[in-house]
Amino acid sequence: MVTKYNVKVQYAAWMVAATLGAVVLLTATHVIRDLNTREATLQRRAETMARTLAAVAAPSVRTANQQGVASAVAAIVQDEDVMHVRILNAKGNAIYSLVPSKEVTDLLMVSAPVGPGTNTAGMVELGLSRAGVMGGVLGTILIDLVLGGVLLAACLAGGIFASTPIRNSLKDLNSYVQRVAKGESRGDRLESELTEIDQVGRTLNDVVMRVEDGQARLAKSQKELKAAQKEMDEYTYVISHDLKEPLRGIEAFSKFLSDGYREKLDDTGRHYVDTIRNSTLRMQRLIGDLLKFSRLSQQKNPMTPVGLNAMLMHVRVNLQFALDQKKAELHVNRLPTVICDATAMTEVFHNLISNAIKYNDKTLPVVEVGCVEKPNPDTGFAEYEFYVRDNGVGIKKDYFDKIFVIFQRLQRDEEGTGIGLTIVRRVVEWHGGRIWLESEENVGTTFYFTIPKRETTKSGTIMELPKPVAKQGGPVAQTV
Amino acid sequence: MHKPFEILLIEDNPADVEITLEAFRRSRSGNHVSVCRDGEEALDFLFQRSRFAKAGSAPRPDLVLLDLNLPRKSGIEILTQVKAAGALKDIPIVILTTSDRDEDVRHSYQLGANSYLTKPVQFDDCVKLIADIQQYWLELSKLPPR
To answer: How much is the pTM?
Structure first.
């Protein structure tokens, strides 16, 4: 966890630290210099005083006139800093001594020979108190500290003042970035008096423009794709519709021929007519399925909650003939209620189960329908995975992709048109699901498809984004 | 009963005309069917003008079977004009077309069509449909007095 400070506190802290350092350094230098100067001045004064005293007191020292020495001292030494005065004769004995009774430690001691020249008659010894020096230095420190304090306050104020434009710019930047995040920055650019932040604003603006351009392009191509898809569907509809028109003629007139002229034709002629009739029937199925396909794509019904077990009962009724004919069994496990287009979803189950019955050569064809709730492997959102399993002829792996392509058939049979699985895939995909299969020849095929688990809100609207689930999938229920 | 009834079939596709007429024949209703093969001809027939101005050349139909996709004047236009004309608006008009587009169905009813049927592909279904139309509109329904 990083401790966070705002710009103002940062600025103030650095200003105080820097100023404090500078003040301490300057004060120390100043004090040391001041101390040295005052010490030197005191030294000079003491030495001058000692030399003067030596000169004045010299006759009295030579004559050992104590009275004279004392009056010389009294005349010269009037400085109250002088704490210690001793005058020694040539033999080194003190002929005058004024020494402070208690030990005064911090004294500046100087001495001067009683001249003239090398003819030394004695020695003058002076001791000056340093108290004055210390007092002066203390005063200097005090002044320095006061000035330092003023400087510190000025710098602090200056620092805070100097940080204001940065803080304001950062605030602007922050609100701009927030607007960018919400997608409300359209058209406006961040401008700042600070070149660095202005640069950031410029760059951000570039990024926003590029993202918006990209979004616009994406929206445009999506729109185009949708339009193309719609056009394609419409095209399919119109084509298959228009094909119906001549087909009606072929159907009717071949029937007239077959009904009314059968006797007049020979075997070959009858065969031709029958072939026309069969081809016409097949064409009708193709066009019918094609129309169903385009209608399913074009007229999407509203998504509603659909109980799939009830739906599968209808599917079973519709397939009853095929089930009876093949003596096939259809097992439907308990299925959930899903939000889907009921008509389209019926088509999915009908087609898959119908195929499972149709492409089955076992003595007891069995078709099983079931469902497992699972999280989507990519998104983690909950989805239902349905399966339609049969014990039929199976499909070669090479054809797994091919079977979903429109008009692709693996067997020549009278009824199949090759549109059923295309419809199935289309419906599954527009519901947001995936479809795949597993198959083994002569063992059977299982088609799997998923439908995202959508939730309805209290108001009845259908949530587009399903909630993610944590739990692993398990069977929804047992066989009913 | 005013049998035989007068029926007007407005249909441009010759095959469809023949199929429908054959279906009428097989229904053995004994009704009389006139055929108009384009929109303008149909309007002339209904309004008994230009070449149908001569009395008796264009009997007032008891029932009109109208295709929507016609050359020159569309079925929708015929429907609009007939339903706007006071003298003709009480003639039941049954749309018999290939289109099953929602907008065509809705538009036709909005303009006053009395029924909307799509042409079956199978001829057998066609025969049944023609029989049903005659039974419902000409025998079960009470038509406006002539």
So the answer is: 0.54
